[in-house]
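Appendix B, example 12.
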Amino acid sequence: MMKNREVAAKIELIKSYVNSNSGKWVESPRNKAFGENKRQKYQLFQKNPGDKILFKLESGNPLYIDIWRFEEAVTLLYASKGPVKIGARISENYPGISLEGHLIKIAKKVYNRSADIRTAPHIADLLVLADIAEFKRIIPAKGRKVHGVTLKGA
């Protein structure tokens, strides 16, 4: 299991990236890794006291992502010892392990609600932008290639 200080060090790399690039337009690295798509550009901001990161989407919509989601993502990726499906589907029926399924399960308990917002693609983007992770195409047990993410050096 990844130690708390290792997770904290990765979170500091994420915060450092956000602070260094705050307000700049960023293109999703998924475009380069998986081909062009209609993924919106976004600006990144760290919200004080530093427990959330704001993705201000090209459409003007804000997406606030709690730091605990990044901590959980890093911990899951470390434990997986290989690529994990990003898994941002409309359906919440996530077969096998996916980053989105993992985060939604936790969020439902944390916030005591029946549904949750999709955050895994943006979390994966920021892990890649901060040079902590890389995207991989993976083939799960049921066939077609899907988008995955893995920690570098894990």
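The chain has five helices and seven strands. Residues 32 and 135 are 10 Å apart (CA to CA).
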